[in-house]
Structures are given as C-alpha cells and as structure tokens.
Specification:
By secondary structure, this protein is mostly helical. The chain contains 28 helices and 5 strands. A 5-stranded antiparallel β-sheet has the order 1-5-4-3-2. A hairpin with a 3-residue loop joins strand 3 and strand 4. The chain starts with a strand and ends with a helix.
Length: 551
Amino acid sequence: MERWAERINPVILERGRQYAARGRVVSLAQANDGVYHAEVRGEFGYRVVVSADGKGGLKWAECTCPYDGPICKHVAAVLIILEGGAEVPQMAEAGPQRALRNLRERLQALSSDQLIGLLMDMAETSQAVAEHLKFVVSDGAQGEVDAARRLIRHHVDEAAERGGFVPWDEVGGAVEGAETVLERAAEIGDWRRALPLCLCAFEEMVDLVQQADDSDGTVGGVIESALEQMGGIVDRASATDRADIFEKLMAAADNKQLDGWSDWRLQLWELALGCAVTEDLKALWDSRVEGESARSDGYGTDYLAARISELQYEWLLQHRDGAAANAYLNQHLDVPELRKRAIELALAEGRDGDAMELAEEGERINHNLPGLVTQWRQLRYEAARRSGRTDVQTIVALAEVRSGNFSYYRKLKSLCSADDWPTVYAHLLRDLDREDWYSASLYTKILVEEGETAKLMAFVQKNPATIEEYAGYLSKAYPDEVARLFRHHILGIAAHASSRGHYQDICVRIRNMARAGACKQAVDLVEELRVAYPRKPAFQEELAQTLRAIR
C-alpha cells in the first residue's frame, strides 16, 4: 500500500493535523471489511471513507468535500487519528454516529418555527454562528459576497491579537471563514456566483497573509486553493462566458494589494489569458499586462517580463500554428525557460547540433548564474550523448565534476581512454585538493570511490573533525591513527561542553569511536574524561552510561 503522507500537500497535511487535534472528526467507525467511515466537521459536515492499515498504508479514500487533490484535509485528519492508535468501534457500535442520528431525528420532529427559534438563539449567543447563518441565507450575488466577506473577517478578527496580528497557532482558525466560502463556491454550478466568492476569499487571504505568522503556509494554501478553483471555473466556462470572466480576473490582478506578490498576480494573469479566446481580448491582455509589468515589484521587472514571455508562448501554442510559436520562441531565447523549451524541442526533433549550440550559448550568457550554467551544461551533455560526440561529453563531464557534481565523475572516467585517464585524474585531484569546503567535499568522495586511503588519511589529519565521517574507510588500514584522531577531536569538544546536550553529543561520538574498532581506546577515553571533569555530575552520568554500552 502507498504511504499516504508522502503524496499529500504539506499545507493540507498541517490542516489535517489541526482538524484532528481540535476534535473535528466527530465520528469514526470500522466496517467489517476493514474500511473506516467517519464524519468530519468543518463549517459543513463531510463524510469520509478510507481503506487504510493505520500505519501509513492507504488503499483508497473518498470524501464528500469538493477538494480536487488526491487527499483532502478531512481524509488526512482521519488517517492521522488512525495512525495515533485510536480504538475504533465497529460500525454497529459507533456511539457518536448514533448520537448524531438521534439528534437529526429530533430536529426533524421540530416545527419550522421551533427550528428558526433555535437558530436565532444560537445566533444571539455566537457571532460566528450568526455570520455563518447570514452567509448561508444570503440572497443575490452581491449580498452573498458581502456576507462571505463578513464571515471571513469575523474569523480573522477572532483569531487576531489586539494589534491585529494573527499568531502562528491561531492561523488555522483565521482561515476557516475563507475555507467555508470556497467550499460553498465549489458546490455552485453558476460561475457568476462562484467566481466572485473565490475572488472574495482570495482578496481577504492576501490581506491576511500580510498580518499573520504563516510559517506553515496555511494562508498561502488557501490562496492557492482559491486560484485552483478559479482555474476550474475557467476550464469549464464557454467561450462566451470567458469574455466576461476575463475582465473580472484582469480587474482582480490590477488590485494594488498584489504589489509585492508577483506570483499571485501572475497566476491571475495566466487565468485571464486562458479566457482570451479572441484576438481583441488577447490585444487587451497584452496592453494591460505590459503596463503592469513595468511597475516595480517584489521580484523585479526582469522576473515579470520572463514569466509574461512564457505565458505568451503558451498562448501561441494553443491558439496559433506551430510556426508562430517557434518564431516567438527563437526571438525570446534570453528567457531561460524559453531557451530550455527550445533546447528540448530541438532534442525531440533530432536536431542535436542545434541543441548543443543553444545550450553552449546559454552557458556563455548566464556565466554568472551557477544554477543556469549547470542546467545548460547538462542539456549540452545530453545532446552530445545522443549525437555520439564523446569529445563534447568529456568536456562537459569534466566541467560538471569540477563544479562539484559527483554524479558525473563515473561518466567522465568512462569517457576517458586508459591512457588519458591517469593524467586527467591527477590534474583533477590537484585542482580539488584545496582548503575550501566546496572542493573538499568532492575531493573526499573521489578518494573514497577510488580507495585512496593514504590520501584520505592525509586529508583527515589536516581536518580532524571529519574523522567520524571517514573512520569506516580508514580504521582497517590505520587503526591507531583513527583512535588518536577520535581522542583529539573529542577532547577538544569536551573542553567547551557545558550542558547535558553537549555531554550526550560527546558520548555519541565516543560510541562511534568504539564502533570504528577503537573500543579499548574509547574505554580509556571515558575514564580520562571522568577524571578530568569530576565536578560535572551530568557529564559523569552520561559517561557512566556510555561506558556500560561500549564494554
């Protein structure tokens, strides 16, 4: 079975934890076939069914919420409870379900006047309930949006401190109103109602993220959910409707609250571009975006211009012929993503020489940007491999190894002849044997790969702190020197240790020393430390435990 936690959005996982911790899973029972049924309460109640083993293994899951992803927060909350080892009754014995069913039956027996009276009493005692009810019964598109905004702001205000800031542990409550609004929007078939609700939640959360500790990305996750729902609305809209949606999205992108939040503004532009189904709308998009992209923003105009160029290219691919898209691509090779697309296109079409030239040109242009240089080099290597250019492969592989990419070391070795390799290897080691961490990391990996224990020992002698990392490779050939280096390293740490955490760390190192074959020397070192630090009782306790473990 698949481990569910490895394929869930981290933001959704955190919301699931919050739901589980706050008791939002109001009923949970196991069917005879090992399938679990649950009810999870948000602002609405959702039914969850999962087939899981309680140890992170998940067969399948279903939830009645509108979330489109693989695992929603309601399913995550149930799985978290199951992994916690909760006792789960069989379906026939599920007390909470019986209680809810009884409550439903009693409510159904009340008259409409009694139900209204009950709801009014609840609204009078709880502002949250009042705002929720106003939202549920709101009438008309604008009235619905106004009620949604009040509901969202109420939850934010309830979570905020006196100065208006929302601390980390209250962010989950602050976004509940927006989540309710998005859940309702997802259930509405008419985009004329759904889109304004999504935009309302989006705008309010953009405001919130600027006055909250969103370390876990909870607010950002709700913003992304709003954008995702708007994308679904665009995908389902007819060509006629898209013209109307276009203007609403462009107006939202124009909002000054997005200054400094380029990615969200760009996502709105991208959604709007998806609605530009006519040449007139595309021309309008061009004029509006060109003016906006010139404004100073958090990422700078270069970032905005590059992303806009990428959007332009995607639009041409969808709405024009391939020649127009290719022409645009070749005119905007200064945009890294478009250069990458041009190289990938050349590779796909078998134009390996063109791909190599484009990649090499990228290396020259972006020579001061290591990440891009690596990307271009690796694409050049692939083009050279496909075309059988071993000379180019060798040059690129050597450059990659020199830059610290050990994954190209074996490729380089295989490309060199038996006569050439010793010279290449000697020059490589000479270049890497420098007093900097960047080179040292690759240097030692190569020494380990080639079994160069003498050179590795010389390196460790100059850098005693690395003895733990390389003791396993050196202890057989140099047992006494490994023990000496361990002792020297540990005594140096002990001289500055002052807390139990420090003492425990030292004792871990002593155990590593013993595992490396220096057990007797480790015992002697423990005794030496016990004599040296008699007035540190916590250290004495840790040393005594370590002594028992290694003897």
